[in-house]
């Protein structure tokens, strides 16, 4: 099984910051940090068996999505050498407005 490096796009990094702020406001900073640590570990875990998840070529060629703890959709692409996390979509956030919950 080939191991690939995992990188976060600028948009995915912004998603992490927004999500962390959103959780911290509702459940406290410690809860937000624990949740983000689990989410980051799940993303980094895509370094092995990277071709998992559901293919969504209808949205973008090569796009894959996988769920995390029933609330996050991790959108990523896989190349020969790396996995790029493109976006992290949280079910309770309005992504058009970025910071407001639905």
UniProtKB/TrEMBL annotation:
Domain of life: Bacteria
Keyword field: Toxin-antitoxin system
Protein name listed in UniProt: Plasmid stabilization system protein ParE
UniProt source species: Fulvimarina manganoxydans
């Amino acid at each position: 099984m080939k191991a690939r490096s995992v990188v976060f796009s600028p948009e995915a990094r912004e998603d992490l910051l927004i999500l962390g702020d959103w959780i911290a406001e509702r459940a406290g900073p410690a809860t937000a940090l624990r949740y983000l640590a689990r989410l980051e570990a799940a993303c980094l875990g895509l370094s092995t068996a990277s071709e998992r998840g559901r293919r969504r070529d209808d949205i973008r060629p090569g796009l894959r999505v996988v769920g995390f703890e029933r609330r996050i959709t991790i959108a990523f692409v896989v190349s020969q050498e790396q996995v790029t996390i493109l976006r992290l979509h949280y079910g309770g956030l309005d992504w058009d407005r970025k910071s407001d919950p639905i």
